Amino acid sequence: MIDVQWYLLLSAGLFCIGLFGVLTRRNALIFLMSVELMLNAANINLIAFSQRFGHVDGQVFALFGMALAAAEVAIGLGIILVLYRNFGDIDVTAPTTMRW
């Protein structure tokens, strides 16, 4: 049986990689993948504590988290397509030039 500390270490590593990607990259696809890494890190935490304490609540919340991640990808890819169509690039700093 693997201890919870290893799951927490894996989750912290994934979250840090995702946070680094969000803070340093300008490409919208990399940004989207980094947010997915952070959501998966949260899901690992939920499942690890669910296993540790013997409740299914964490697994249920992880399923809702996966549904949220799937919806976020669908909406994010739609936004990326609109960005590419309007600006010819998927740089996330390009829409800041839009004004009222």
Q: Which second-level CATH architecture applies? A: Orthogonal Bundle
Q: For the record, what CATH class applies?
A: Mainly Alpha
* CATH fold label: Helix Hairpins
Distance between the termini: 57 Å
Overall pLDDT metric: 91
User: Radius of gyration from the CA trace?
Assistant: 17 Å
- Helix share of residues? over 70%
Class by alpha and beta content: mainly alpha
| Element-level helix/strand string | HHH
By DSSP, the count of extended strands is 0
Jot down its keywords.
mainly alpha; 100 residues; Helix Hairpins; NADH_UbQ_OxRdtase_chain4L/K; single chain; 78% helix; oxidoreductase activity, acting on NAD(P)H; 3 helices; EC 1.6.5.11; NADH-quinone oxidoreductase subunit NuoK
